[in-house]
Amino acid sequence: MSHRLWDQVRVPGAGADGTHRTMLVKSASMYTDLQRERSDIESIIAHPDYLEVNPELIKPKKLINPVKASKSHQELHRELLMNHKRGLSIDSKPELQRVLQHRRRDQFIRQRKEEEEAKRLQSPFEQELLKRHQRLEQLEKKKEIQQEEYEPEFIKVKENLRRTATICTEEKAV
């Protein structure tokens, strides 16, 4: 294969006095080599039957992507391109996530305000009653925990057996 692009060719009688001149001409050997390589490759590749002109066959068409064909996708893509051209930065969070965070924050603020208003509207007597009620509940929970700790294991097992025995007798009666 010749890789020369230009060849020197003698052209007879090209001068005014009839002398020979040399001219640079593009080499045809490189092009012929490429054509030969291309024909070798084409002989190896199997050509599908549907490329032949046959009116009975249905020619395959490329399927349309419904996402890319949708108007909303096209508008979004156009908007992103415009923002990119302008140099605007794209938010790191999607719009839905930003909206949900905004709603959560607003809801949290509303709950705080409602709690503060409820505390303001309570009289000092009601506040004291609420504190005592909370203390009593805490004491009851502590007593229950202590009772469970001090009960011997065999009493717990005996109570479980009684429960199962009553359940079994109720099922037999039915």
UniProtKB/TrEMBL annotation:
Protein name: Actin-associated protein FAM107A
Pfam family, one: DUF1151
Annotated signal sequence range: none
Domain of life: Eukaryota
Subcellular location: Cell junction, Focal adhesion; Cell membrane; Cell projection; Cytoplasm, Cytoskeleton, Stress fiber
Major subcellular site: other
A GO term from the CC aspect: focal adhesion
Record's keyword terms, sorted: Actin-binding, Cell cycle, Cell junction, Cell membrane, Cell projection, Coiled coil, Cytoplasm, Cytoskeleton, Growth regulation, Membrane, Nucleus, Stress response, Synapse
Record-level Gene Ontology MF annotations: actin binding
GO biological process: actin filament bundle assembly; actin filament polymerization; regulation of actin cytoskeleton organization
Native organism taxonomy: Eukaryota, Metazoa, Chordata, Craniata, Vertebrata
Its job: Stress-inducible actin-binding protein that plays a role in synaptic and cognitive functions by modulating actin filamentous (F-actin) dynamics. Mediates polymerization of globular actin to F-actin. Also binds to, stabilizes and bundles F-actin. Involved in synaptic function by regulating neurite outgrowth in an actin-dependent manner and for the acquisition of hippocampus-dependent cognitive function, such as learning and long-term memory.
